[in-house]
Write a structure and sequence with these properties.
Helix content is 45%, strand content 26%. It has five helices and seven strands.
């Protein structure tokens, strides 16, 4: 008989404990909502991160703006690229074409490429598709008031950085600025500069 009241008391106490736990859980849930509001503030703090990402987007836009500076190379024939030109000859634009194991011997003297025969004579000894590239480049730089010229400027691992084209008594002299490197080439590349000099 004495065990019944103890069990009833234990049940009453356990029921009170359950109610207390439920009340506490309800309070925590309400606090969780408040924390959720606080958590939305850190989310608001993370919103500047996307705003930083758009900040990075404009930095990519200038790099895209840098790409149009390379657009002139798109106007040059396939297999050729513009090269920076200096010198006393008044030539402001030139292109360089190249081919691996393209043959030829470097020379500072440029040859006039104003006829088909002159182009044919110039490309003798050039290989690996280089004669076709030179012919295309000559056609591209040709104009009614200018004469096309070409020179094999170098053979090696890296292209010339620029060329100086000077007018001399014997004709146009083309001197390349070559990079200083110690890399040895297993297959040297032949670089030919093609340009048009204004007729006097």
């Amino acid at each position: 008989m004495s065990t019944s009241p103890r069990l009833a008391g234990a049940r009453t106490r356990s029921a009170s404990a359950v109610l207390a736990v439920l009340a506490l859980a309800g309070g925590l849930a309400a606090c969780g909502d408040d924390d959720g509001g606080t958590a939305s503030d850190p989310a608001g703090t993370s919103t500047p991160s996307p705003s930083e990402t758009p900040g990075e987007m404009p930095s990519e836009t200038p790099s895209e703006t840098g790409s149009p500076t390379e657009t002139p190379s798109a106007s040059t024939p396939p297999g050729s690229a513009p090269i920076r030109t200096t010198g006393s000859a008044g030539v402001t634009e030139a292109v360089v074409v190249n081919a691996t194991e393209g043959g030829g011997s470097p020379s500072t003297m440029a040859m006039a490429l104003d006829t088909e025969q002159a182009v044919a004579d110039f490309v003798v000894g050039l290989e690996a598709g280089l004669p076709e590239l030179v012919t295309t480049a000559v056609a591209d730089v040709s104009s009614p008031d200018a004469t096309p010229y070409g020179a094999v400027v170098s053979t090696g691992c890296e292209p010339p950085r620029s060329v100086a084209i000077d007018a001399g008594e014997a004709g146009f002299q083309v001197v390349p600025t070559l990079p200083k490197n110690t890399v040895q080439c297993f297959a040297p590349v032949t670089y030919v500069v093609v340009f048009a000099a204004p007729d006097a």
